[in-house]
Specification:
Number of helices: 10
Structural class: alpha/beta
Strand content: 5-15%
CATH topology of the largest domain: Aspartate Aminotransferase, domain 2
Radius of gyration: 20 Å
Distance between the termini: 47 Å
Number of strands: 12
Order of helices and strands: EHHEHEHEEHEEEHHHEEHEEH
Shape: globular
Helix content: 25-40%
Oligomer: single chain
Bound molecules: 4'-deoxy-4'-aminopyridoxal-5'-phosphate
CATH architecture of the largest domain: 3-Layer(aba) Sandwich
Largest sheet: 7 strands, mixed
CATH superfamily of the largest domain: Type I PLP-dependent aspartate aminotransferase-like (Major domain)
Length: 354
């Protein structure tokens, strides 16, 4: 730390992203990317748009917002595109939480939430998940604090029914509820339609997972128009050109080719169920997942041992060190072929340990 670093950040513990190795060619199952490439129309649109890089991008993201509002049947002023969903999450933390308006989230969830809270000086509280890693909805009913819930949750993959989400939103009318739907396309029902009914709900989404675009850094939020206006105030006070030209086009054209992406999601769901069954046959405990990953543990070797063994065999999965989940690994669902290799290697590892 330099002697110039502001005291207000000196205790900040930044978010640790998953490994992005540049050396060996791994089967990469550690950061929930899609195993499928972007669609043809997206590649063409991005290439064409690159020819205009000398000009700033559209700060209003007009085309993308139009496509998003049509796809989700909301008004154009109900959407806001951002540089990954991390950015809309940060905007929402900045805009609606502060010392007088603390925020709560589960103890096991996306590791960026406490970082957004810390950097923005927002008091926060972690509400423990139940023993089986599910969310106890009653913990969030009428609690009179801002709330952020990932649905499906990460890294567990566990899903909360839409009626439960609605109960939470409805019972906290004077607080903002953020539902982070990064993984909703893999089998869940979106809360976006509820944004028309409740003026305290923000749904955040990403193109990183179901739309094969993690490298484009594109996310968005859907909410009542006045919540969007407030987040626009934050956007125009930090980075008005937050979404680059190529990503705006990539998003707009991806929506036009929605069928391609939804059929990839269907394939990933099938492969997820294959993976879950195969792991269970090998004696693993696998949480029920509605995401593009599974969270699994095995009593024959520790989470860290399995992570290291797989890494040495060219397969990267994600291991977290926090006490409650250190026995688990989060495994992104790749292609069927990749998952068959994973299962084969796990069988080998278990046999060697016998
Ligand atoms: N929310 C959750 C629950 C996530 O797992 C991720 C991915 N790391 C994000 C949001 C952010 O995704 P992105 O910024 O790539 O849209």
């Amino acid at each position: 730390m330099s002697r110039f670093f502001s005291k207000k950040y000196s205790a900040l513990v930044p978010y640790t992203p998953g490994e992005q190795p540049k050396d060996v060619k791994y089967i990469k199952l550690n950061t929930n990317e899609s195993p499928y490439p972007p669609s043809k129309g997206v590649l063409e649109a991005v290439t064409k748009e690159a020819g205009w890089l000398q000009l700033y991008s559209d700060p209003e993201c007009s085309l993308l917002h139009k496509e998003l509002s049509t796809l989700y049947n909301v008004e154009k002023n109900q959407v806001l595109a951002t540089n990954g969903s991390d950015e809309i999450l940060n905007f929402a933390f900045m805009a609606f939480s502060d010392k007088e308006n603390p925020i709560v989230f589960p103890d096991i969830t996306y590791g960026f939430y406490p970082v957004f809270a810390e950097i923005n000086n927002i008091p926060y509280e972690k509400i423990p998940l139940k023993e089986d890693f599910s969310i106890d909805v009653n913990d969030y009913i009428g609690i009179n604090k801002n709330i952020v819930i990932a649905n499906p949750n990460a890294p567990t993959g566990m899903y909360l029914e839409l009626c439960d989400i609605e109960r939470i939103v409805k019972s906290n009318p004077d607080n903002v509820v953020i539902i982070d739907e990064a993984y909703i396309d893999f089998g869940g029902e979106s809360a976006i339609p509820l944004t028309k009914k409740y003026d305290n709900l923000i749904v955040t989404r990403t193109f990183s997972k179901s739309y094969s675009m993690a490298g484009a850094r594109l996310g968005f939020g859907v909410a009542n128009e006045s919540l969007i206006a407030d987040m626009n105030t934050i956007k125009y006070s930090t980075n008005p050109y937050n979404v680059n030209r190529m990503s705006q086009m990539a998003g707009a054209f991806a929506i036009r080719e929605n069928d391609y992406y939804m059929s990839n999601c269907a394939e990933i769901i099938k492969t997820r169920e294959y993976t879950k069954n195969a792991l269970e046959k090998l004696g693993f405990y696998v949480l029920p997942s509605k995401a593009n990953f599974v969270f699994a543990k095995c009593d024959k070797l520790s989470g860290e041992e399995l992570y290291l063994e797989l890494k040495s065999r060219g397969i990267l999965v994600r291991h977290f060190t926090s006490e409650r989940i250190k026995d688990f690994n989060r495994v992104t669902i790749g292609t069927m072929e990749q998952m068959e290799t994973l299962i084969k290697e796990i069988k080998n590892i278990l046999e060697e340990k016998r």
